[in-house]
Amino acid sequence: MEILKERIRKEGKIKEGNVLKVDSFLNHQMDIELFSEIGKEFKRRFEGAEINKILTIEASGIGIACVAAQSFHVPVVFAKKTQTKNIAGDVHTTKVQSYTHGRIYDIIVAKEFLGEGDKVLLIDDFLANGKALEGLIDLVEKSGAELVGAGIVIEKGFQAGGDALRGRGIRLESLAIVESMDEKTGRIVFRGDAANK
Amino acid sequence: MEILKERIRKEGKIKEGNVLKVDSFLNHQMDIELFSEIGKEFKRRFEGAEINKILTIEASGIGIACVAAQSFHVPVVFAKKTQTKNIAGDVHTTKVQSYTHGRIYDIIVAKEFLGEGDKVLLIDDFLANGKALEGLIDLVEKSGAELVGAGIVIEKGFQAGGDALRGRGIRLESLAIVESMDEKTGRIVFRGDAANK
């Protein structure tokens, strides 16, 4: 998605530890006009697929998912992160290891909002090691819902998450896949770029 | 806003401790068509006001704010909740006391995304004791931005937050104000209802 890549090249900041900061338009300040284009692109890529629910995870996935949902005309459910010890029996739950914070947290979805008959598209802003997405997939599987695929705004192609999920047969549509980025020069190469061949 | 009140009457669940659960359409599963109508209603109420940014707080405010922003054609910024001790100098920060959890947490917004020249509309899903909204107002004041007002989906009119903020001269537009609710009968009375006079 060219307008997205241009935006990442222009405003993305590469930080130590393979961090790509895009908080001017994606996950702190949010450019809603861009989100609308992103939603249309997800719709185009999943054209013809039967989808009746979008599932995302708090917090930064919610904005993208809600705007994208307008192209799909389906409700959005967001998985909640919780550190609560006692999880009630009326939720699906799984554990996710946070790469950034190094700790493990639970994510939950109420059973009444995810279950058999649901055809689910996952949406999130970032995919790196894939732990959050794996958690969402696990919730879908536990619920008996059908996983249609996942739409990701930015995938870090140099981390293992995306290719591992593709290897499992998950349909993964990432709108910009960063193949490499250089903290010193600020250069970002996307998968499929001519410069990358 | 009548369609919102009808939805609350139909799907809202009253729980012990003055809890109103509306997670089938507002803050866990999210009805995006309803969000779109809510966004248009905020736009109608703030018609003529100069607004160039919407500020909300994670997590459940983000969906409403992003969909509403499509009616205003402005970016959204969400304040992040953090328990991190060392806050860098490049953020505005304030403390918020959580009514539900009884603890105090920090909320932050990067200085580059909120400051002088910004004319800010606050948006959130719920207003009860008003602590989260007070925190957002404090961030706006610290940043030097101008506070235009606040749009709230559901206000609990029987808690002190809303009227206290109106008393401070804050322009507050709540789309449904719950005046009373009865856990035993399930009856919900809204401010302005004939039954309430």
Describe this structure in words.
Chain A has a single domain, classed as Rossmann fold (3-Layer(aba) Sandwich). The mean pLDDT of chain A is 94. Chain A is α/β, with parallel strands linked by helices and 197 residues long. Chain A has helices at 2-11, 32-45, 61-72, 131-143, 161-167; strands at 13-15, 19-21, 29-30, 53-57, 76-82, 91-97, 104-110, 119-127, 146-156, 172-181, 188-190. In chain A, helix 2 packs across helix 3 (61-72). The longest helix of chain A has 14 residues, at 32-45. Chain A starts with a helix and ends in a 7-residue tail after the last strand. In chain A, the strands form 2 sheets. In chain A, strands 6-7-5-4-8-9-10-11 form an 8-stranded mixed sheet, with helices on both faces. In chain A, strand 10 and strand 11 (188-190) form a beta hairpin. Chain A is 28% helix and 34% strand. At the A-B interface, strand 3, helix 2, helix 3 and strand 5 of A face strand 3, helix 2, helix 3 and strand 5 of B. Strand 3 (29-30) of chain A pairs antiparallel with strand 5 of chain B, so a sheet runs across the interface.
